[in-house]
Design goal:
Strand content: 25-35%
Number of helices: 4
Shape: rod-shaped
Radius of gyration: 52 Å
Helix content: 25-40%
Distance between the termini: 111 Å
Length: 389
Amino acid sequence: MHISERPRTNLTAEVAPASADEFGLGAGMIAARRRKRRWIWGSLLATLVAAGAIYVRAATSLPVVAVVEATPTTAERILAVTGRVQPRESVAVVPRVAGQVVELTKDEGDLVTAGETIGRIDDARARAALAQADAAVEAQRRSVDQAERDLERARALRERGTVTATALEAATLAVTRGREDLRRFQAADDEARARLDEYVIRAPLTGRILSRPVDPGQVVSANATIFEIAPMIDREIETEVDETYSMALALDQPARLAFAGVSEPVPGTIAYLSPRIDTSTGGRIVRLAFTPPKNLSQAELPVGLSVDVNIVVERRDGALTLPRTAVREPTIAPHVLVVEDGKVARRDIEFRDWPSANIIVDGGLRVGERVIVSATPPPVGTKVEVSTQ
């Protein structure tokens, strides 16, 4: 069988480049693609340049420190404490005799007037003693009356000659002795009445009861406090100042008082400084006089009311003040760090230690110097940049 061969097909062909029209793209689209490629490469180049600049800047930048400028100003050295309203005077009412309290007519906060009865101690024995004294006086008075009648009869009989002179003298002596005994019994009666009055508790002054530490039924001694009473006026502020700072205080030093509900500070002055330090607390009692504001009377200020007290210990014009945090090693070698000619420099200073946020510099710092207040400043001699607070 003869098999004829078909001519083989040549699979190798030259492929011509397709035109834009063959892919459905116009000439404008081709140009846009080329511009986009150029923009991407340009952006990448700009980013690399910027990153390089940032790296160079980071490698060459200086540490930044916060500073404050030493500027002269009017400064006050203030001692801030908390005080309480107290009466300038108060009286502790104690019974004049010991015994059981049977009646208390007033309580804490009540008003009383001088001489008013405000309580009683059991006076049964005193009343019995007074009754006995009254009876003795009455009996002696009757005895004296009888002796006086006997004397009158003796005188009449003597005039008629029926009574001897001796009998008349005896009758006269009986009257004299009877009258002496009556005076003695009367004095005993007055004493018993006075003792009975000692069982009555009366207000010694007009004012308000601050406290009543006992209740009816209690048995009290003769030195137990039944009431504490204070006048309605003459209030003052009492506080306790630590002994470390109390030596800077003096009489008549001004103060500013802040009362709750009063918008403006109330002026006051130191009126009393205790001559002793409380060894248990290390504190010194200070009392301040004040004039209450127009809308508040002293009578309206309750005893024990808390008051914020700012005592002006010192006022200085042209003082250099700094935040306390700017002082380095304050207890060992107090100094500050300043920026001088772009570098960190040290200044040893003198300052007065005082419990406040700012301190007054007494020496070692010049006006206008820039003091570093950053918590962790670089070492002395380091070049820095400044950030002013």
